[in-house]
Amino acid sequence: MPLSTSLLKSSASRLGFAACGVAPAAPVDEAVAERFRHWIAEGNHAEMGYLANNVEKRLDPTLLMEGTQSIVSVALNYFPAQQLDAAKQYEFAWYAYGQDYHDVMKARLTTLAETLVADKEGEVHYRVFCDTAPILERYWAWRCGLGWIGKNTQLIIPHAGSAFFLGEIILDRPFTSYDEPLPNRCGICTRCLDACPTGALAGAHTLNAARCLSYLTIEYRGEALPAEASRVMGNCIYGCDRCQQACPWMRFARPTEVAEFHPKPEFLRLDHAALQCLSIEKYRHIFRGSAIKRAKYDGLMRNVKAAGNFEKKIR
Ligand code: B12
Q1: Which residues lie below 8 Å from residue 176, measured CB to CB, with a gap of 6+?
Q2: How far apart are alpha carbons 277 and 256 in whole angstroms?
Q3: How many angstroms is it from 118 CA to the middle of ligand 1?
Q4: In angstroms, what is the span from residue 282 Cα to ligand 1's centroid?
């Protein structure tokens, strides 16, 4: 018996997902697979070596679980209600304002999956992912009809923008009906490409991670940031949203209603001076349960030192 697509959609909406769709599981389109292989071969993944591993699985989700028949993709809004004050505070990427999205998404995805498989004849096997498996999440969000892939490489949801986390459920059952991909609506706009301060968006849909401030401030483990990045990063010390801030579709973004993504007051109070002399104990306290811990204490302090107006602020 196929699983109910209408139950999927209504349950996803009740759980606070802003969008949800489903597609039959299959290898990704050959043109997309070719893009991915080329992206890796050109070294665009910088030091994120894991992206070059498990390429077969990444390009064919049926290899992630035996008998996989369908893929559900969901989006969870993280757009913050309140922005940090650029005059007094360093910038953190919006996605990191609240609790670590991996935990929040996984809990909701599991509830959604359990709702779908409850009372079904025979055992239904499933797995849930959010940044936790070799899978092209943006591709599947597009394939499941959530939105299109913008020139900034972000999955953009019509009339909602791109400040959404993506998550998936793969299941060994079919659904009663499937969604169709949406057309690309970037048109001739190139604002994201023009806004990237480091030229990391080498062209439409192509990101050179080695130049991307998000990569450099989160994933890069070097002792110092490249001088060129440090010259243009301004106040940006953790992640970067420039390419989505510039996107005209972001005018539709609405503050998240996901309580776990609302920032803690101590995070909102962090000003230049507080971050410049942040002790490791305070760091652990303020960023407990936050995705910001990915950069580690040393990485965050390295970024603070590299940021544009460091000298001016230590007075
Ligand atoms: C590695 C990674 C990064 C790297 C590299 C980013 C990149 N663009 O590849 C770095 C550290 C730089 C990064 C940064 C960010 N990331 Co990130 N990242 C990932 C991760 C783990 C893998 C992405 C990947 O496989 N990259 C390789 C490239 C080649 O693949 P891709 O971007 O998916 O591109 C494919 C599709 O676009 C595809 N494609 C499909 N259909 C079509 C159609 C057309 C016409 C074209 C041209 C292409 C195309 O072609 C490409 C591949 O072959 C994913 C989670 C996941 N497993 O997918 C999160 C993920 C993509 N990141 C996410 C987020 C939120 C961010 C940041 C916004 C965080 C921040 N503010 O700092 C930035 C955005 C920067 C940017 N413009 O990408 C979200 C994106 C949500 C969304 N709405 O799109 C994801 C999905 C995590 C999640 N679960 O929510 N990230």
Answers
A1: 2, 3, 4, 5, 6
A2: 31
A3: 32
A4: 31
Tell me the pLDDT band of 119, cut-offs 50, 70 and 90: confident
**Average of pLDDT values for 98-126?**
96
Choice among 29, 103, 131, 241 that is catalytic = 131
**Which of 101, 131, 250 most suits a substitution to test ligand 1, by most atoms within 8 Å of the C-beta?**
131
Q: Which conformational region is residue 199 in: left (phi greater than 0), alpha (psi within -120 to 50 degrees), or beta?
A: left
Average pLDDT rounded to a whole number, residues 268-281 = 95
Measure CA 33 to chain center: 20
What mean pLDDT do residues 63-70 have?
A: 98
Say how many Å lie between the CA of residue 32 and the centre of ligand 1.
13
Query: pLDDT confidence of 310, banded at 50, 70, 90?
Result: low
With a CB cutoff of 8 Å and minimum separation 6, the contacts of 236 are: 90, 91, 213, 217, 242, 307
Whether the model pTM is above 0.85? yes
What pLDDT shows up at residue 240? 98
Tell me whether residue 60 is one of the annotated catalytic residues: no
Closest residue by Cα to atom 45, ligand 1, is: 149
